[in-house]
Amino acid sequence: MARLGTTDLDIYPICLGGNVFGWTADRDDSFAVLDAYTAAGGNFIDTADGYSAFAAGNSGGESETMLGEWLRARGNRDSVVLATKVGMWDRRPGLSAANIRAAADDSLRRLGTDHIDLYYAHQDDDSVPLEETLGAFDELVRAGKVRHIAASNYTAPRLAEALEISRREGLARYVALQPHYNLVERAGFEGELAGLCAREELAVLPYFALAKGFLTGKYRPGDDTSESPRAEGARAYLDERGVKVLAALDEIATLRGVPVASVALAWLLGQPTVAAPIASARTTDQLTALLTAAELRLSEDELRRLTEASA
């Protein structure tokens, strides 16, 4: 376990993504994955109010509802660090004060808990003053409904502005950032945004840490047999650079005797400010690679090999 940035939250180094719960993982599979993750020492689970509205037949809230059922069934709420989000779901869009208050109450009800450990602005909303958004989050923190707040999908200038407003007005501040970041998606985070997170001591929790499954090694040139819902997005990385990344991952995974996905996640854990990559698993077999990554520390040479391959 390690501290999440400047907070008092102790977290497992791999955050379990809840986007598959109620989508590609049914109730039995979701419970099995959650049980296996916590049995191995995992305690950090990420979801959002809108998960899994993108699945056929769903409307949103399914992941939170399923997590709530599991937490009640296991009676383990106090041992789990629970993160969810507001602002992207079309039924509760945006970051107005009214929407944040209503969305938080809805999430608490679905999750069956009286508090959220880490509550994200799922994406920036430039139609609402940052002062209003941060003021609403601050109210939730003061009321005890939320312990800490975080940002997802923010640019460096907007994140810096939000942090300055919190400092100036004495409001709760973002303690973490959830960016789109992995071995084949580096440009959007590295540089200005990464530097800001380092200076402000923000924990970084990358989503799509396995690039929609591409970094598991499942997708290869000439192999188009998978019908996974994410297959098309994963195959988009099968260019010359992607093939180089797979080759480097294969080399290190073979030498270490670990799954390819474990190496990809370990590369993220080797980056400055990254506290815990977020990755999901539909089955307990898929979970194995995530748990292995939590114990895997790459050497400087291995990190450099992967960084150069993905340049």
UniProtKB/TrEMBL annotation:
Signal peptide coordinates: none
Residue span, NADP-dependent oxidoreductase domain: 13-309
One Pfam family cited in the UniProt record for this chain: Aldo_ket_red
Organism superkingdom: Bacteria
Annotated Gene3D superfamilies: NADP-dependent oxidoreductase domain (3.20.20.100)
Name of the protein in its database record: Aldo/keto reductase
Species in which this protein is naturally found: Saccharopolyspora rosea
